[in-house]
């Protein structure tokens, strides 16, 4: 590999990390709050649990691929790129950030009215 290609590789890696950072500002971190505001913590926890599985498996895959030939790092980067692109395409085609029907809070208007009346009928007394 020539020196020029090494610089291109560093530039591409930097761009990849920069574009990957967009998912934190406007991607999967906010989607849990958009689809289910009341259950955002639970939804994010479940999605993040599945998202950490590749982080657990990847060291073993990288070790198996690069053990005999260090030049196989190219394959590792191709696999990472393919996973990112497939995830992006799936989210663009199937993903949504709209409030889900199961996350809508159904309010009983009668109980709400009673609660409001209770608050207004209570009188504060002060001892002076």
From TrEMBL:
<dbReference type="GO" id="GO:0022857">
    <property type="term" value="F:transmembrane transporter activity"/>
</dbReference>
<dbReference type="InterPro" id="IPR036259">
    <property type="entry name" value="MFS_trans_sf"/>
</dbReference>
<feature type="domain" description="Major facilitator superfamily (MFS) profile">
    <location>
        <begin position="1"/>
        <end position="128"/>
    </location>
</feature>
<feature type="transmembrane region" description="Helical">
    <location>
        <begin position="6"/>
        <end position="32"/>
    </location>
</feature>
<dbReference type="InterPro" id="IPR020846">
    <property type="entry name" value="MFS_dom"/>
</dbReference>
<feature type="transmembrane region" description="Helical">
    <location>
        <begin position="73"/>
        <end position="94"/>
    </location>
</feature>
<dbReference type="InterPro" id="IPR050382">
    <property type="entry name" value="MFS_Na/Anion_cotransporter"/>
</dbReference>
<dbReference type="GO" id="GO:0006820">
    <property type="term" value="P:monoatomic anion transport"/>
</dbReference>
<keyword id="KW-0812">Transmembrane</keyword>
<protein>
    <recommendedName>
        <fullName>Major facilitator superfamily (MFS) profile domain-containing protein</fullName>
    </recommendedName>
</protein>
<dbReference type="GO" id="GO:0016020">
    <property type="term" value="C:membrane"/>
</dbReference>
<keyword id="KW-0472">Membrane</keyword>
<feature type="transmembrane region" description="Helical">
    <location>
        <begin position="39"/>
        <end position="61"/>
    </location>
</feature>
<keyword id="KW-1133">Transmembrane helix</keyword>
